[in-house]
Specification:
By secondary structure, the chain is of the alpha/beta class. The protein has 6 helices and 9 strands. Strand 8, helix 6 and strand 9 form a beta-alpha-beta unit. The longest helix is centred in the N-terminal third of the chain and has 14 residues.
Length: 176
């Protein structure tokens, strides 16, 4: 059975460059029932994991992650690009296809008692997810798992994640 959120994903050919088929999930966010299905399905998978904080990367990770955090009764930790947070931060660099980037969280966003769930809209190469997990672990917390709306299986993100982080990876939609 195809869920409503799967039906609303729009393929955009040749974006952002020729040969790429971009998976546009914004129609899912614009449909209350479909967005609720995404949030509920991700949250329900991790409901018994004792999650106290959900971490998501900007920008779509904020939308999905904060909603999942609400559904789990957990706090939300935004992982931002450098220079966007106003107080003391910790930072984690990660590899991109062409270069590097980094994410930051507030230094006091997590405590050693926290159990963190990494949530994002999409996992492609796994770099952003691993960076978030490393940020969390640098604060001595347990990372309980990673949840994604879309997983680009053809890029083998699970293999990349497993090299650095030993956690469950759960995705709602797999793109072969």
């Amino acid at each position: 059975m195809t869920r409503l959120y799967e039906q609303l994903i729009v393929d955009i050919p040749d974006y952002p460059e020729p040969g790429v088929i971009f998976k546009d999930v914004t129609p899912v966010f614009g449909n209350a029932r479909a967005f609720a299905e995404v949030v509920d399905n991700l949250a329900e998978h991790f409901i018994d994991y004792g999650i106290t904080k959900v971490m998501g990367a900007e920008a779509r990770g904020f939308m999905v992650g904060s909603a999942v955090a609400y559904r789990l009764g957990a706090g939300f930790v935004p992982a931002r690009k450098p220079g966007k947070l106003p107080r003391e931060v910790i930072s984690q660099s990660y590899e991109l296809e062409y270069g590097t980037d980094s994410l930051e969280i507030h230094a006091d966003a997590l405590t050693p008692d926290d159990v963190v769930l990494i949530i994002d809209d999409l996992v492609a190469t796994g770099g952003t997810a691993v960076a978030m997990a490393k940020l969390a672990r640098s604060q001595g917390v347990k990372v309980a798992g990673m949840g994604f709306f879309l997983e680009l299986d053809f890029l083998n993100p699970r293999e990349a994640i497993a090299k650095d982080v030993d956690v469950e990876v759960f995705s709602l939609v797999h793109v072969k």
